[in-house]
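Review form for a predicted model. The reviewer records the input and the model, then writes brief findings.
Reviewer: anonymous (R2)
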Amino acid sequence: MSIQVRVPALPESVNDATIATWHKSPGDPVQQDELLLDLETDKVVLEVPAPAAGVLGPILADTGAVVQADAVLATIEPGQVAAAPEQHHAASADKDDIVLTPAVRRLVKEHDLDPSQIPATGKGGRLQKSDVQRYLAEQAAPATEAAVPATPSVSVEETTTISDARDEKRVPMSRLRARVAERLLEAQQNAAILTTFNEVDLQAVTALRKQYKDLFEKTHDVRLGFMPFFVKAVVAALQKFPVLNASVDGQDILYHNYHDIGIAVGSPRGLVVPIVRDADQLSMAGLEQTIRQFGQKAKAGSLSFDELTGGTFTISNGGVYGSMLSTPILNPPQSGILGMHNIVERPMVVDGEIVIRPMMYLALSYDHRIIDGSDAVRFLVSVKEALEDPARLLLQV
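Model under review:
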């Protein structure tokens, strides 16, 4: 009797999904729990495993199809399938001889890795997806200090038109890109967005990081970046000006008595904003570890729906791409977003003398419907003062 492969339960508020990739073809043998296909939603990619071992029957929904929860995608004809040989990892192994699951094979191919160089922790020395993600995280530069834009992969055939000399390519937007476009347009149409600017001297933060970076890493097993300082400074400013942490709900202002800070990061699928929950309750080490994990997960495409949902305020770091100044757009229904930019050494006048200091421009975009300009300016000044004198964060002044 055929066994149906169905769309799994979708996260709350997600109505449908798009089939991104089929990893098996009709007639292919499959193992139980082996990855069959990927489903792309507005925020995350869901992996659909085989519910039983057997042979894959007809595919009922092709790549690019939009499907609802519990829809039938294909069938599996139960039967005996030869077990895949166990993978024994060795540094000298030929990468072409290593047996990989589809999920691992996809990651290895996407990042052009040699699987024989990746420590395997699975049963019998089998390389697991988590092993590849860990290896990528170890090789990657800190997500909060450096990021390289990646070109999203496209699962549909690109069509060339016009002529050989003047080519064009037409590809559909990914679900994530389409959702980002929708939300940005919504923000522009439904909020009165203004932006105020300031600059911050990061000499004190830079000196503090230099003085304690080795001890911090030895104690907490994580490097100390700039982002925890900005999160701490933002939380302190939000506590002084809670309207920046609020949102518009109809004719009401909804004040949040918690601080869930979104950190905008780049991923192969585009911009994503994972949420640091209760950021006010985390230590510097806790913030750094959480943000770094988000960066690793974003690169590996393994952020969960819950990690991308919610948030009361957002921080966006365009400086990692070299941006000097920008006007960030609100992330609805939030009412404020802080834009960080490139750190550049510039001559500054300090106590009547010209000195060279590491300077950064800050941009705060806010919803003028509920936030007055004076509150926005003072909020940004509060962030600036906390970063220029980090002792304020400890003393809460």
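Findings: Residues 82-96, 141-163 have pLDDT under 50 and may be disordered.
Further findings: The first helix runs from residue 102 to 110.
Recommendation: see findings above.
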